[in-house]
TrEMBL record:
Succinyl-CoA synthetase functions in the citric acid cycle (TCA), coupling the hydrolysis of succinyl-CoA to the synthesis of either ATP or GTP and thus represents the only step of substrate-level phosphorylation in the TCA. The alpha subunit of the enzyme binds the substrates coenzyme A and phosphate, while succinate binding and nucleotide specificity is provided by the beta subunit. The keyword Hydrolase does not apply. Belongs to the succinate/malate CoA ligase alpha subunit family. Heterotetramer of two alpha and two beta subunits. Substrate binds at Y165. The keyword Translocase does not apply. This is Succinate--CoA ligase [ADP-forming] subunit alpha. Pfam families: CoA_binding (PF02629), Ligase_CoA (PF00549). One of its GO terms (molecular function) is succinate-CoA ligase (ADP-forming) activity. The active site is at H251 (tele-phosphohistidine intermediate). The lineage of its organism: Bacteria, Bacillati, Actinomycetota, Actinomycetes, Micromonosporales. It catalyses: succinate + ATP + CoA = succinyl-CoA + ADP + phosphate; GTP + succinate + CoA = succinyl-CoA + GDP + phosphate. Its EC number is 6.2.1.5. SUPFAM superfamilies: NAD(P)-binding Rossmann-fold domains, Succinyl-CoA synthetase domains.
Amino acid sequence: MAIWLTKDSKVIVQGMTGSEGSKHTRRMLAAGTNVVGGVNPRKAGTTVDFDGKELPVFASVGEAMKETGADVSVIFVPPAFTKAAVIEAIDAEIPLAVVITEGVPVQDSAHFWAYNVDRGQKTRIIGPNCPGIASPGASNAGIIPADITPGGRIGLVSKSGTLTYQLMYELRDFGFSTAVGIGGDPVIGTTHIDALKAFQDDPDTDAIVMIGEIGGDAEERAAEFIKANVTKPVVGYIAGFTAPPGKTMGHAGAIISGSAGTADAKKEALEAAGVKVGKTPSETARLMREVMS
């Protein structure tokens, strides 16, 4: 009952020995995630104790994969070192790299994304500046709280971490197959469309919640994709109905330019594709509740 991250996923943490990396490694382990080690070249060969579970530290992603069979890396490294960390994951051809780091320069994100494309996109990148991916009851890679909701049959894709948590909480009586926080930066690895396609193809997902926000045209492109390819019911929400033009709101990519990128324009495009769009998160949850009932 999941896309991309399952109970069988073996997770490593780049930056596991740092303060954020160690804190969230402990949380992921508590959630039942199969974390098998960490990466820090300066501390290679040591181990870290997480409440009685000793995890090895490796010199590189490639070494960690060879020794543990890891197929997911969660990246908790400072912005200045994120590009190098992601490129290392791409070179090792790890299937999934979840980039949590906030404040990554857009030029760096563009660079590692182009690098990935040049090498055949063998690594799926989620993020940067995202809460990660959670398949409740199976695995949790990132910072999404593990106790919001049980497993279920709703899929969720969102630009916003906070709104991810809110919708998971409001629909906790139905539960989720997978929740994917794709991040709100101008350049991200996994898009709404990627997640929509995966949920459409997933036999254990019955309906999809899509959360977007002002700025860019990702939601309009997602609307076109939904119209042409998605047969499952989709309920949407766009953050930023009251945002003033020309002012960045929260995420680096959330900025309205002229009449482009407004919440109303995105709502219109989605509704034209048959998506029910709520004006608030709670209304969005109610619309999904109606679909699931």
